[in-house]
């Protein structure tokens, strides 16, 4: 490298050059393994500190503590493929073992520092992370928006806004927006795709699972049209009357959802997350909503009543129906009357494949988790909304609740697949891991009372969100802290936190919010649509008329019609009127059809 770069005032040395230990001139894999143990023992005996109390150093010395935390973090990640859980190795055992290894690495590190000091007494060590050790100077090798680069196993990425960012390679590889840039035929760095590039880039991992329509021309046009879908809102407020007084549950919330992207909606209890979902879904609410909600700049009206599919946290399904039957029922009942019956059945079959439940298509749903597990029931709930063929977006209330990490990641992968079809996805989630949160593109963060704290990109390892709060006065996040828990703490959202700063006011006056408002104005100008207030009386009247047209008897007839045509029959246990009344209408008694099929 020195020759290639033309360096003349710099030399390179290896640790083997500092010690009197005979090693082969050429270290291949076998000779390395054969000599590594003896070499390390020699270094420890000659340069190590006798009686070194690592635990005390971690407690007292800031530089040692930072190094120890870095070792632990990457050991936890790297060794999980070698020392797998199971048998006598529990999660707690694995953590205890990695702590021990990290401390042994510190012991070796002090021996290494001793070897350097003996050979170069006046040396200066440049540290790529913040460090306070002897002979150390902290410096950032890149002008990154996150300050110091991440030590150990570090990769860098050129972000879409022109800034550089560093993180472990795994974080970048898991982000679907990142592409590897090669130089001289070798991988060099990651580059973040712009929104336009990302929406046009085929997801190779999901290509085989994407639904292929019978008419490829229609499918191509349909997807291309939906990829430009925007649902955008500005100054959205929502008030209810409580005890004769008006109570605000959403307070001037701004944002947008774009086809092809995933957005996470987070906040404490009482932040108005479910209310925002209901308003965006055009569901009737008891309070008064004000503000502008537009779809591609156009008023949201009865023409877009099938705009959104909503997956609520409650899990109400026909226990005696199979997965396929439930999807067919949703398709027949909720797709437009003008759609031929055969097409509805065929589309329901496509949804079976899209949600990955072909093997369970003829399995009865059952109750609870007795037949389908939690993840499979979530997939089915999503599929039932897909069977209705929403045109623009899918809204999900706590879709990851009750799932283990692997199942939650599987659901996130399914949502990404749906986004690749052009749908915009919005999910409420509660304190996810970094890996789960990275599955999303943007974050809407609300505080109690529906006050907005943030709307924007999440970033690799959540660094964009973290950077926003740190730059506006939040304490610096420790490397081991969960970013979501840290955000809730510094913003005063946790019950045990007491933040004196009004973060909603910080957001309202921030350059980030000004950029959001500018983007919303650009969207209005782009689509040149006519604004419609959410509480426009004419729109509300139309919606109420549409709701009034839903006849429980028609609902009942449709269900029995598809049972008859498909030669299906429910078990007698599930023909009780109270079950149908609960599932289909709050106060309706369901009986067998009075009209011939």
TrEMBL record:
Gene3D superfamilies: P-loop containing nucleotide triphosphate hydrolases (3.40.50.300)
The keyword Kinase is assigned to this record: no
InterPro entries registered for this protein in UniProt: AAA+_ATPase, ABC_transporter-like_ATP-bd, Isocyanide_synthase_DIT1, P-loop_NTPase
Residues of the ABC transporter domain: 231-473
Pfam families: ABC_tran, DIT1_PvcA
Domain of life: Eukaryota
Molecular function as annotated in GO: ATP binding; ATP hydrolysis activity
Entry keywords, A to Z: ATP-binding, Nucleotide-binding, Transport
The protein's name: ABC transporter domain-containing protein
Organism: Exophiala oligosperma
């Amino acid at each position: 490298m020195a020759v290639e770069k033309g360096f003349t005032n710099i030399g390179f040395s290896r640790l083997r050059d500092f010690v009197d230990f005979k090693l082969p001139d050429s270290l291949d894999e076998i000779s390395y393994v054969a000599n590594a143990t003896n070499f390390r023992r020699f270094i420890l005996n000659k340069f190590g500190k006798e009686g070194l109390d690592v635990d005390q150093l971690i407690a007292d010395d800031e530089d040692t503590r930072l190094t120890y935390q870095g070792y632990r973090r990457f050991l936890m990640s790297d060794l999980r493929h070698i020392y797998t859980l199971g048998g006598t190795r529990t999660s707690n055992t694995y953590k205890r073992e990695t702590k021990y290894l990290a401390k042994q690495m510190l012991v070796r590190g002090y021996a290494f520092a001793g070897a350097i000091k003996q050979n170069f007494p006046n040396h200066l060590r440049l540290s790529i992370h913040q460090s306070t050790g002897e002979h150390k100077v902290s410096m950032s090798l890149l002008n990154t928006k996150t300050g110091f680069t991440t030590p150990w196993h570090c990769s860098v990425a050129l972000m879409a806004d022109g800034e550089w960012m560093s993180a472990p390679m795994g974080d970048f590889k898991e982000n679907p927006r990142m592409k590897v840039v090669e130089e001289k035929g070798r991988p060099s760095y990651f580059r973040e795709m712009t929104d336009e590039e990302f929406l046009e880039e085929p997801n190779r991992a999901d290509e085989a699972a994407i639904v292929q329509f019978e008419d490829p021309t229609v499918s191509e046009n349909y997807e291309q049209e939906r990829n430009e879908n925007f649902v955008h809102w500005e100054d959205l407020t929502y008030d209810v009357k409580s005890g004769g007084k008006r109570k605000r549950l959403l307070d001037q919330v701004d944002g947008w959802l774009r086809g092809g992207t995933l957005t996470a909606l987070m906040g404490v209890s009482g932040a108005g997350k479910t209310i925002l979902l209901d308003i965006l879904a055009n569901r009737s609410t008891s309070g008064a909503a004000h503000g502008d909600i537009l779809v591609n700049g156009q008023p949201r009206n009865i023409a877009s009543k099938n705009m959104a599919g909503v997956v609520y946290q409650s899990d109400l399904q026909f226990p005696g129906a199979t997965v396929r039957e439930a999807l067919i029922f949703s398709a027949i009942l909720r797709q437009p009357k003008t759609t031929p019956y055969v097409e509805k059945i065929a589309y329901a079959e496509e949804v079976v494949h899209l949600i990955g439940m072909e093997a369970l298509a003829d399995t009865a749903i059952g109750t609870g988790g007795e037949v389908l597990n939690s993840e499979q029931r979530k997939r089915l709930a999503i599929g039932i909304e897909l069977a209705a063929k929403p045109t623009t977006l899918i809204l999900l209330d706590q879709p990851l609740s009750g799932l283990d990490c692997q199942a939650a990641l599987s659901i996130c992968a399914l949502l990404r697949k749906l986004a690749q079809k052009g749908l915009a996805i919005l999910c409420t989630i509660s304190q996810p891991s970094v890996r789960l949160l990275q599955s999303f593109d943007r974050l809407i963060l609300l505080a109690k009372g529906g006050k907005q704290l943030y709307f924007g990109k999440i970033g690799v390892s959540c660094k964009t969100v973290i950077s926003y709060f740190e730059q506006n006065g939040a304490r610096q996040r420790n490397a081991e802290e969960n970013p979501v828990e840290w955000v809730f703490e510094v913003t005063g959202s946790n019950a045990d936190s007491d933040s004196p700063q009004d973060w909603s006011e910080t957001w309202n006056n921030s350059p980030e919010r000004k950029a959001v408002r500018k983007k919303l104005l650009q969207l209005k100008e782009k689509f040149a649509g006519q604004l419609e207030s959410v509480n426009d009386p004419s729109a509300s009247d139309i919606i109420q008329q549409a709701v009034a047209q839903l006849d429980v008897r028609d609902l009942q007839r449709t269900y029995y019609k598809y049972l008859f045509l498909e030669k299906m029959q429910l078990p007698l246990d599930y023909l009780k009127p109270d079950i149908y009344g609960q599932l289909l209408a709050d106060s309706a008694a369901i009986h067998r059809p009075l009209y011939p099929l």
